[in-house]
Amino acid sequence: xxxxxxxxxxxxxxxxxxxxxxxxxxxxxxxxxxxxxxxxxxxxxxxxxxxxxxxxxxxxxxxxxxxxxxxxxxxxxxxxxxxxxxxxxxxxxxxxxxxxxxxxxxxxxxxxxxxxxxxxxxxxxxxxxxxxxxxxxxxxxxxxxxxxxx
Length: 150
Fold this sequence. Notes:
Layout: H1 3-14, H2 20-32, H3 34-52, H4 62-73, H5 78-85, H6 90-131, H7 138-149
Helix pairs in contact: 1-2, 1-3, 2-3
């Protein structure tokens, strides 16, 4: 049994939730693996500490208030929830969303425009560089290469 699988099953082993076959494999692995033994000892200590903690009993009104809160969460409209973060009239909220859309669109436009301008500059400089070779006779490059090879 690999260490990762053993460590994944340590909590279930402590709680007595493993099948007998898995339990036997885990115990055999713990006998031979010091690292997993340390992890198991740590789990045992934490489990012992958790058992010493006194349970906290909620007040009588806790559960009714909890359920009331849970039921009220789904009833609030999303614009009403927005009011807690943005406490202005509805018209101001709509105007804000509209202006935010314009801002995001403008930023997107300028980013795209910059990309297009860079591409145009790259293409233009490449075509300019290629045009500078237009005056060279077509066979002259071959002659230069042949003369260098000789």
